[in-house]
Model the fold of this input.
Amino acid sequence: MNSVDQDEYRRLSDLLAVGLAVVSTRQGPHDLAVTVDSYLDISYDPPTMLIALYGMSRAAEAVEEAGHFCLNLLAEDQHDLADRFGTPAAPLQGMLSGLETTRTGDGDAILPGVLAHFAIRIEQAVDAATHRLLIGPVVEMCEGRIEGGPAVRFAADRADLR
Done:
């Protein structure tokens, strides 16, 4: 079995252009939001999606405990939100302060100005290396604004598709 250098893997895998999103859920009376770039639409029949969260994170624990989450696809001018919710150990209380959010039927936050959102209920949770894959059907979705493009990360930095 060949050994792959982890630093080289990280450098090369950063060459994947990935769209940025924010996953939101509720933990008791508090909102939790975390930036993700590992998500996938798995099936159209039935509509099913997957997210990958670091398995030892409070985000993975909260999302799995809630049993549902909202995947908010960020627009190109929302990198500040990706930075805000991508900061490790951000305080749980007041996480969404200053944002005029709406809610999914399950109560998860829909961020303002996103390209689209998908409300997902978890049916499967699978361990994969250091991450937890959370998989489930889309139970609600809505298009947001469509002008502009997606927030994208490439080579560990912000990128523009134009």
User: Anything to note?
Assistant: The longest strand covers residues 131-143. The longest helix spans residues 58-66.
